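Worked example

This section walks through a single chain of length 127. The input is the sequence exactly as stored; nothing has been trimmed or padded.
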Amino acid sequence: MTEHIAEIAAAIRCLDDFMTAFNARDLPAFEATFNFPSVRLASGTLTLIERGHHQPAMFETGPLADWGHSAWERRDVIHAGPDKVHFDTRFTRYRADDSVIGGFNSIYVVTRENGHWGIKARSSYAP
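Given that input, the structure is written out below as tokens.
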């Protein structure tokens, strides 16, 4: 894909920053990777995410209770335009001992709003 190279690069940086902040459990930096409101479709539930939605408790219970870190396995561009990039992704969740919790296919939509690249929507098979 030779069109929209700069936009794709900016959207990939957003995904890099998202994963880095998530793994660091740095919620202000994590939320800086979104364009709010953002939508998450997972486990049969559509969640509208607003600023302040993410809280430290999310790392203590539920699907992230045993989680140590995550890593991208795939981030393929599906479509790209001047203000939006769609990605076909796969990420893996690991425990602190590097054993695998699971790998999950996802679609991420990264948009540019008011000059800021952020995650606007994601649909995942992750819990």
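What to look for: The domain at 5-124 is CATH 3.10.450.50 (Nuclear Transport Factor 2; Chain: A,).
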